[in-house]
Backbone:
C-alpha cells in the first residue's frame, strides 16, 4: 500500500472513531426510541467501516470476516428492535 493511501486510511479511521463516539452518546442519551434506533443503526455502520479500514491497514482478511458477521447480526437486531418499537411486542 502506498504511503498516501495509508495516511488517508489512518485519518479516516480517526474521523470514524470520533463519529462513533458521538453516535454511542446519542444511543445513550436519545430523546425517543426512534432516535435511539437510528443512532444504533449508525453505530453498526460505523463499526463496520472501522473494521474495513483496519482490514485495509493491517492487510488481514480476519477483520473483514468479522465485519460481515457483524453486518448480518446488526441487520437482524435492528429489524427486531424496529418491530418492537412499532408494535410494543417482540414477535
Residues:
Amino acid at each position: 500500500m502506498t504511503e498516501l493511501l495509508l495516511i488517508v486510511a489512518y485519518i479516516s479511521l480517526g474521523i470514524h472513531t470520533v463519529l462513533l463516539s458521538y453516535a454511542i452518546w446519542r444511543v445513550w442519551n436519545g430523546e425517543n426510541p426512534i432516535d435511539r434506533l437510528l443512532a444504533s443503526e449508525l453505530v453498526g455502520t460505523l463499526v463496520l467501516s472501522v473494521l474495513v479500514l483496519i482490514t485495509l491497514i493491517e492487510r488481514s482478511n480476519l477483520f473483514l470476516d468479522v465485519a460481515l458477521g457483524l453486518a448480518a447480526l446488526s441487520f437482524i437486531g435492528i429489524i427486531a428492535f424496529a418491530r418492537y418499537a412499532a408494535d410494543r411486542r417482540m414477535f
In short: The mean pLDDT is 87.
